Amino acid sequence: MINNIPNESLKLISPDGEKMDIPPEGMLGLLALGAVGIKAWRQARKKAGEPSHWYTKPSEEEEKNG
User: Fold this and answer.
1) Number of domains in the chain
2) How many CA atoms lie within 13 A of 35 on its CB side?
């Protein structure tokens, strides 16, 4: 079951009624949930301080040095 309240982080609930923590590294079951699982994973990464994209824009100094 998925609790999707606007402006609040997604919470996954197991069939036993226990809250499931989403690790920043992700888990295979999130892919099975589709877009909702990916959104929950992105929120977990953001909360952990991980970058939101695989590609990051180089700094101005890196662009100058090539």
Assistant:
1) 1
2) 1
Q: Kindly state the tokens that stand for 43.
A: 């929120």
Binned at pLDDT 50, 70 and 90, residue 16 comes out as very high
Show the domain range for 33. Answer: 2-65
| DSSP letter, residue 66 | -
Instruction: Decide: helix, strand or coil at residue 38.
Output: helix
Cα 53 to chain center, whole Å?
A: 11
Task: Give the global pTM.
Answer: 0.60
CA dist 61 and 29 (Å) reads 41
Both tokens of 41, joined, read: 């994973």
Q: Give me the phi and psi of 19, to 5 degrees please.
A: -70, 135
Locate 13 and state its tokens: 């609930």
